[in-house]
Specification:
heterodimer, A: ABC transporter involved in vitamin B12 uptake, BtuC, 0% strand, B: alpha/beta, Rossmann fold, 2 domains, six-stranded mixed beta sheet, four-stranded antiparallel beta sheet, 10 helices, globular
């Protein structure tokens, strides 16, 4: 039973990660694969604030999300200012740099990992509560991002992706929008990090490396870029698949590479055979129903 | 305070190609000025320099007495500088109406904090922008396609949408880049009509156009550009009649 709880919690956390990553690369059109580093920052910040600074855990989780959000602004402002393409390079550099720092600093637990992270749940309490909590946060994330992307902000994101120059010439601040999109997406990843840390109670830098980037990218691309349900489906299916593989009773030395091949293979297959993903998003931006009927009345 | 657009000593070269050579030009409120000249004279580059798309090597640009030099593209637009594009640059993933809404002078929906903090203000702004956009579409005979995807509207109407979108920020100065290329019939009349009405409201208008008849029908005066410089300014008739300019135009 505990195994199923763990799986459900991981799926909920990956729904948060995939939905927020979809917001950044799908809706925002910002090319970055460093999403896991903000997951890591949220997790480590929250864990350290709770463990070493004695902060109440809920407060530490929120603070962890804010630290991830602020860190993402520091990465985005200089790179987006030059050109969107630099974000990819800057964010990968940032991801590698932060993970390397975590490995080599004493108070983060180093390469061996951070242990003794206080748990949010009191010992002996029902783990289903945590399942419910993470699912509730996942639903809130999806609902918030869907609400944003179907309102005036979503309209502006669509226009910015279509033609940034024309967008700017109409008085819209593309730079500020890109930074805000990146910050919100990264902050939500940080929130998922805090939720992870205070349930699993152990963090190691290897959990947030490039393989994680590949996994998240696969979830969003296979699920369907810019669709609401795509990344959710992608996260659930691709979180379940590796678990299913472990039932095949293969030697552990094969499991890691096999998962890597699976993810990369899936991205390649989908890029060629079904680039729109399992659940395709329409090419045309449609606002909320309320907005549309509103317009027809006017 | 000087009103309208003022350009002083604008310079820009790309390697050996000079697109603006100490360019000087005033666009007065309420006047429609036609910018003519051969291809490569620097007409579109002039628009790009004034709107901030391209950074000049030197010179000053001001609108209604406010310096634009050094401002970002979107900041200039917010001060009332509006333009259209030779190749339209509409947003293909949006409807005609949504294309216009993006151009609203104030668009609180572009700020995430504003979005989350003040949904009421946002709704009011959206409602006002919608009314304004539908009004512009109505005047330009586009009301019927307001909710159609812009990419599936005929080319002539797309040109009109490009102009309509540029009107959403209530410009003080409007720069039209070849509004007539590929347009005939109804759109021709509609664009002339709209531009005249804008000028009557005190907006400075500058039109780059190869269709000389259109320029002659519409513009109060013409400016002849060649090699990044203003060579002559006067009535469009006089400019067309000048054999020296005709020679430059046709490159004989």
């Amino acid at each position: 039973m505990e195994y199923l709880y763990t799986l459900a919690i991981l799926m909920a956390l990956y729904v948060i990660l995939a939905a927020s990553f979809n917001f950044v690369i799908g809706y925002g059109g910002l090319i970055s694969i460093a999403h896991p580093v903000f997951y890591a920052i949220g997790a480590y910040a929250s864990a350290l604030l709770a463990r070493d600074a004695g902060w109440p855990i809920p407060l530490a989780i929120v603070a962890g999300a804010l630290v991830a959000l602020l860190a993402s602004i520091l990465v985005a402002v200089p790179s987006v200012r030059i050109s969107g393409d630099y974000l990819l390079i800057a964010s990968i550099g940032f991801q590698l740099g932060v993970l390397e720092a975590i490995k080599n600093i004493g108070w983060t637990g180093g390469a061996g990992g951070l242990t003794n992270i206080p748990a949010l749940l009191a010992p002996g309490s029902n783990h289903a509560i945590y399942v419910a909590l993470t699912i509730a946060v996942a639903i809130a994330t999806v609902v918030l991002l869907r609400w944003i992307s179907r309102g005036p902000y979503g309209r502006a994101m669509s226009a910015m992706r279509d033609d940034e120059l024309a967008f700017a010439a109409l008085g819209r601040n593309a730079l500020a929008m890109k930074v805000a999109i990146f910050a919100l997406g990264s902050g939500l990843a940080g929130l998922a990090g805090g939720l992870y840390a205070h349930y699993f109670r152990f963090l190691a830098p290897g959990q947030f490396d490039i393989l994680q980037s590949a996994a998240l990218l696969t979830m969003v691309v296979v699920g369907g870029l810019r669709s609401t349900w795509g990344p959710i489906l992608g996260a659930i299916v691709l979180e379940a698949l590796p678990q299913a593989i472990t039932f095949l009773d293969l030697p552990p030395s094969l499991l890691g590479p096999l998962q890597g091949i699976l993810f990369t293979g899936l991205v390649l297959i989908f890029m060629f055979a079904r680039p729109q993903g399992l659940i395709p998003a329409g090419d045309i931006w449609r606002g909320r129903k309320a907005m549309a009927t509103d317009a027809r009345r006017a | 305070m000087p009103a309208g657009l003022e350009v002083r000593g604008l310079c820009k070269r790309f390697g050996g190609i000079v697109v603006a050579d100490a360019m000087e030009l005033d666009l007065a409120p309420g006047r429609i000025v036609g910018l003519i000249g051969p291809n490569g004279a620097g007409k579109t580059s002039f628009f790009n320099l004034v709107t901030g798309v391209v950074r000049p090597d030197g010179g000053r640009v001001s609108l209604d007495g406010r310096a634009l030099t050094g401002l970002h593209i979107h900041q200039r637009a917010r001060l009332g500088l509006s333009r259209t594009w030779q190749n339209l640059r509409l947003f293909p993933s949006l409807s005609v109406l949504d294309n216009l809404l993006i151009g609203a002078r104030v668009y609180p929906g572009e700020s995430l904090p504003a979005l989350i903090a003040g949904p009421g203000r946002l709704r009011r702004a959206e409602a006002a922008d919608r009314t304004q956009a539908l009004d512009i579409l109505e005047r330009m005979g586009l009301a019927g396609v307001a909710h159609t995807d812009v990419a599936s509207v005929p080319f002539g109407q797309q040109k009109l949408v490009g102009v309509a979108r540029a009107l959403m920020n209530e410009p003080r100065c409007l720069l039209l880049d070849e509004p007539m290329a590929g347009v005939e019939g109804h759109a021709y009349e509609a664009i002339q009509d709209v531009v005249r009405r804008l000028a009557a409201r005190g907006i400075a208008v500058c039109v780059v156009e190869h269709n000389v008849a259109f320029i002659r029908d519409l513009c109060d005066e013409g400016v002849f550009m060649f090699a990044g410089k203003v060579l002559a300014r006067g009535s469009v008739e006089d400019l067309i009649a000048d054999p020296r300019l005709t020679e430059l135009y046709f490159g004989t």
